[in-house]
TrEMBL record:
Positions of the Fibronectin type-III domain: 202-299
Cited CDD domains: FN3
GO cellular component: spindle
PANTHER family named in the record: ANKYRIN REPEAT AND FIBRONECTIN TYPE-III DOMAIN-CONTAINING PROTEIN 1-LIKE, WIDE AWAKE
Listed name of the protein: ANKF1 protein
Spans annotated as Disordered: 1-25
Gene3D superfamilies reported for this sequence: Ankyrin repeat-containing domain (1.25.40.20), Immunoglobulins (2.60.40.10)
Amino acid sequence: KMTQQMRDLQLAQARKPPGPSSPNAAKRLYRNLSGKFRVNYTSFDEGSLVGRGEKEKLRKSYLFQSNAALFEAVELQDLDRVQEMLKHYSPEELDLNTPNSEGLLPLDIAIMTNNAPIARALLQAGAKESPHFVSLESRSLHLSTLVREAEQRVNELMAQVVNEAPNADCSEKEKQLKAWEWRFRLYKRMKAGFEHARVPDAPSSVHLSVASSSSLQVTFWEPLSVNSAVVTKYKVEWSCSPTFLPLLGEAVIDKLKDLHFTIQGLVSGTAYHIRVSAYNMKGWGPPQASVPPFAIPSNWREYDGRAPRRRGQAEALDHLLGQVKTVHQHCICHEPCKNQPQSRKHSVSKSLKHLFHPGSKFLKTLKRGLYLTAIFYKDDNILVTHEDQIPVVEIDDTYSCLLMQDFLWLTKVSCMWDEILWLRQCVTVSQSSCSCILQTRFKMLLAISQMQGLLGIQDLGQVFFEPIKDKQGNILIVTLKEVKTNQTFESVRWVPICKLQTSRKSVSSPEEPTALDTLLISVQDKLAYHQQSSHALSAGLYLGYLKLCSAVDQIRVLVPEQLPNILCHVKIRSNPNISREEWEWLQKMAGVDEPVPTEPEADRSQNPLFQELQVAIKELMTLVNIPLQEAKDFRLYSQEVLDFGDQVSFLLLLPPSDDVCTAPGQNNPYTPHSGFLTLPLQIFELGEER
């Protein structure tokens, strides 16, 4: 009685386990699985191998039935259960796009019953419509067949129930009758939903922006109408003509998690018109033209043809370092290390397995001098010696005043931990000059080599931006490294930080703590800084605020604590590209010596970048605690856009030239709110590179 098309489909599904034999059986299966899901989802515990093994067995036991359970959840319009199953099971495990015995997919049922929340949840998980509905007629015919067959089955069961005497078989048939009556009503509701649906309205808004010199980005929003069926896909079309004749290209978007699309491979300098239309089970709706109606692929560099600032710099530095190594490779000082491998590649587990043997030279207490400590951490645990001490080695016991230039030199050395042996040999040759600076730096290299040897690991991590000093004349340089592994180690101790802090017996007074005590007290802040300094910005165009302050031996830059490797900033928009037209506007504004735009003007109201800058400047001034009135004297840096890769770019907002850098002793009337710190400029540059 099914159409021939559906019969072929059923034959093709022979490999799939059969579904429930009746609607009642499907409901029982759904209820049973729902109970299993409710009990066992909460039993996921990554720290319990037994619980995890039992859960895995349960998953394998019920995976083949999960598809039927999902169908029942959709049919019963149980949004919570649908979301729960989509969360804990992959689309493949759920057979999300495999039709059931009626030739329907879960998304088909959701959209034909006009259940928009479930349909959207399925679409976001990657659900598709049945490919067998090639036309409106085929869908209508299939629904009519389902309704007719369900009605016929109801009539047959009703006749049997009426004519048979009450017995066990009759009771079972009454249950089947109720189940088929429910399914009959479901199919009629689906058929009515399809018949009353209409094609969708045009997308409510379509925004067009320039993504690069060869691409445009299209962002669109759902139609406003709530009367039509759920939209399941969109079509983006582009042409060089406003009439879209000829059409240059089109793309269908059926992954609706993010409603945007980037058109690639366009010709720079050519105007392209864009429009977007929506689709539902009744077909394609009318197109919506973009705003602006056309755009020209371009990039701000095309304004004067300049090349990227950093093009070839990394290669040039590598080449220069290679030349230096070549000059020194035949030096007599390198003879002892020729037989050593170029790099010691120890795994973390191997290097830490034999850590901190009793004969090590880690220090327990500090005397007057300069020291190096390495902090390795994992989650809330910190690695300590067998004596519960943070590893510390001595650099120089006669050096009680660390020069900033020596410290900054060490931070640069931290970018090449694998080259310490080579650097040490080179500095050894230069010691004949008896330079105090070289001797100090040579001792730093010796201490680094000692730390690497004792730990059995080359990479000591990132140098904390500020050494710890105490009144006893100790200076402690701190390196930080996160150990990203779930493996357990022997012969080493991972100690909770809180336990280490409470168990250590301080030998100093609270008024004058030693450098080690200060380190333990502030270790969480340092770990937070280390983690936050490795965070990356999401793609977009940002407005950054450049504020410096100078001291006798350094210049420091204002940065946010939550992202100390980036200037104070706010996001302007998600598109990082500045087009040639936008850059021309910025150049004109700078050329007439205009202040930054803080108030709207009628002739600029149509400029999207102008409006975006207005919002961003107000937000940034509030962030750094500067009255908006003062921003009228600020300027946008108009020499270039700062590009950080292909996905992040910055425009810089500068105070008046006299206030960009605060001199020593100069009062800064506008102190930022809490949540900021100042980093030495060289440290900031290193963090930016990382």
